[in-house]
Design goal:
Distance between the termini: 53 Å
Number of helices: 23
Strand content: 5-15%
Helix content: 25-40%
Mean pLDDT: 87
Radius of gyration: 25 Å
Number of strands: 20
Structural class: alpha+beta
Length: about 650
């Protein structure tokens, strides 16, 4: 890792010479559609939308005027009944049944009111009597983005589409320079995704997972918010009660079973791949699947995956080897999923624009195998996880050491020119954390994780990892309630152990609870006397990793997409041009452009640093701010309000 502590006079001179570089036209970022069953959608109020016809056509979408104030832009036709118009995107789990996509919604008995508080990943748009409501699933895994300036309102489940639509309608977008300067220089676990509801473009916001947004277009443009049950769970103070805790776990077991059953009983999926690593979350999924009826278990194949430690695959194999399911390898994709004409398709940047940078260059453009579903332990960190949310050190809120530990700037953090940017960074993160009702810093960071990184990292509308759709059955409010009850037994930022995961796993399958976990989990394995069931067994399973044939008969070039995208983004001349044009937009970006130009020079000298995960994240941040900025350079003239 490069550590630049101070920029020299030579660095300043080099930057001034760099500013004389000829500006070149850079490739436009194409709007990438959200992957099925998600549908890209947007709604506009008090906005002239006739200029969106060309955009709608290019994206294969339809414009529909709902009333004199409101227009929607959708892929799937809107639903209409006698009282309202609504649109649906994603999938919903209810009463052990999976409704997958807008087509299945159109033939189901579910009504909009039935979706309130449901699990899954969905966006629900409801319009009635001049009122627009933006609703999402229980954990807010499919967030909404919206623009509101007191006169007009627009919202979408695709931030890139929202910006492009506003630009084409003549809205004079501008960068939130102080916010975006922080975004472009910060990285790491906490700063790799949003840590505030403010986006990098002024008047643009991200909804929190527990918010319903309501906009009354006929009431003077009033915007209001309603909190869901998730908010109550995260803010209530429930004292420890072992009987209540055990009851919560039983209900969580039932919820996770119902979710898993719903995926297996949906006829569209002929084969279900269960990912198993050496950790806790994926093992809970695998254990639950083994309790399904035998006719459904015939769909199971397993995939052992590494999640960060050297013994991960060995410990994962120790679990899967207990059973005789088929084992599979993945091939990432083929060339048709890589290229868009002669260009690399940067679909992931479009889908995660302004929201998420970590590893986001490594996801795929699309998936084509619609018969196969992948089950993961995703969102386990939100409903069970502990130490990975970065609130574990004995620091107080506002401690400078804590801010440094969270990430700060990846490559340099003591540059005099950046003192104002660092002050903004500190103010943003402290304002976010101070708004949470819990007092313990560890718990504050867990709320931060639930509000932002969890749904950016595991939101399947944005991230396609293999050539199939992936889901997690671990959506459970009762698991979350058990966790928060247990968390409140701890203070001073101490890390709770994995009691909830082990207790729940023991309730589902006692055998799997005593099979060893990967070494990185050793420091949070609870002592036996802390568990509900004190099993005294020492199991040493067959942990040899066994080779398996590729899942598909066709052998595709492994990791081709990842290689192509990283090669493209390693062309530092593109990132340099982006820096130049960010500087041209406003000289207030000069401090960060100066430092980042020094970073790019270091990358040229030390390519191994660029190829690291953090190195690619820094490049990704430049792309992120640049492409948001291009939406703020509008040539449209004239008014845009109705």
């Amino acid at each position: 890792m490069i550590a630049i502590k101070q920029l020299t006079e030579e660095d300043e001179k080099a930057f001034q010479e760099f500013l004389k570089t000829e500006r070149k036209e850079l490739p436009k970022l194409h709007i990438a559609p959200l992957p099925f069953p998600h549908e890209t959608m947007a709604v506009f109020s008090h906005l002239r939308t006739n200029d969106l016809a060309e955009l709608a056509k290019s994206c294969g979408m339809t414009l529909k005027e709902i009333d004199s104030e409101t227009t929607v832009l959708t892929h799937h036709p809107v639903f209409e009944n006698s009282s309202e118009t609504y649109a649906f995107s994603g999938y919903v789990l209810k009463n052990g049944h999976l409704t997958f996509g807008a087509d299945e919604m159109s033939t189901s008995d579910l009504k909009p009111d039935d979706l309130d508080g449901c699990y899954g990943e969905f966006n629900l748009l409801r319009i009635a009597d001049g009122q627009i409501k933006l609703i999402a699933d229980f954990f807010g895994m499919s967030p909404w983005y919206y623009y509101e300036d007191g006169s007009i309102f627009a919202a979408s489940n695709h931030y890139h589409l929202l910006l492009e639509s506003l630009k084409r309608c003549g809205v004079k977008l501008s960068m939130n320079i102080r916010r975006s300067r922080v975004n472009i220089i910060t990285s790491g676990y906490t700063y790799g995704s949003n840590f505030t509801t403010d986006m990098d473009v002024n008047h643009c916001y991200l909804t929190l997972p527990f918010e319903k947004i309501i906009y009354n277009s006929r009431g003077g443009g009033a915007l209001s918010k309603e909190n869901t049950e998730l908010y109550k769970i995260l803010t209530e103070s429930e004292e420890w009660d072992e009987d209540v805790y055990e009851d919560y776990l039983r209900k969580a077991k039932d919820e996770i079973y119902d979710n898993t059953l719903a995926y297996f009983t949906n006829d569209r999926f002929k084969q279900i791949v269960i990912d198993v690593s050496g950790g806790f979350d994926s093992r809970i999924v695998f254990a639950t699947a083994n309790n399904l009826p035998i006719r459904l278990r015939k769909k199971i194949v397993t995939h052992t995956r590494r999640s960060g430690t050297r013994d991960d695959l060995e410990k994962a194999a120790g679990v899967t080897n207990l059973y005789s399911y088929g084992k599979v390898n993945y091939r990432d994709t083929d060339e048709s999923d890589v290229m868009c004409g002669d260009e690399v398709d940067l679909a992931q940047i479009s889908r995660n624009l302004g929201s998420f940078a970590v590893n986001s260059t490594l996801y795929l453009n699309r998936y084509s195998n619609k018969d196969r579903l992948q089950l993961t332990g995703g969102i386990g960190d939100a409903v069970f996880g502990y130490k990975r949310i970065r609130g574990s050190l004995d620091y107080s809120l506002g401690d400078k050491r804590l801010l440094s530990y969270l990430g700060g700037c990846y490559l340099w953090n003591n540059v005099e020119q950046l003192k104002d940017v660092f002050a903004d960074q500190e103010n943003i993160i402290l304002k976010t954390l101070e708004g949470y009702s819990c007092n313990d810093l560890f718990q504050k960071f867990h709320v931060l994780y639930i509000n932002y990184r969890n749904r950016m990292n595991f939101g399947n509308a944005h991230n396609i990892e293999y050539n199939n759709f992936r889901v997690s059955p671990l959506h459970s409010k009762y698991a979350l309630k058990a966790k928060w009850m247990y968390f409140r037994r701890f203070s001073n930022n101490k890390i709770p152990d994995e009691k909830i995961s082990i207790d729940l796993l023991t309730m589902i399958n006692p055998l799997m609870a005593v099979v060893p976990f990967a070494a990185n989990n050793d420091d949070v394995i609870p002592p036996k006397e802390n568990l509900l069931w004190k099993i005294n067994v020492d199991i040493k399973p067959d942990s040899e990793t066994k080779s398996s044939k590729p899942l598909d008969e066709k052998v595709e070039p492994e990791k081709l997409y990842r290689t192509k995208v990283m090669e493209y983004m390693s062309d530092l001349s593109v990132a340099e041009q982006m820096l130049l044009q960010i500087y041209d937009y406003s000289h207030e970006y000069e401090p960060v452009c100066l430092g980042l130009y020094r970073v790019l020079r270091e990358f040229k000298d030390s390519p191994e640093d660029l190829r690291s995960g953090h190195g690619m994240e820094q490049i990704r941040k430049i792309y992120d701010v640049y492409y948001q900025m291009t939406e703020c350079q509008s040539d449209n003239i004239g008014g845009y309000r109705v």
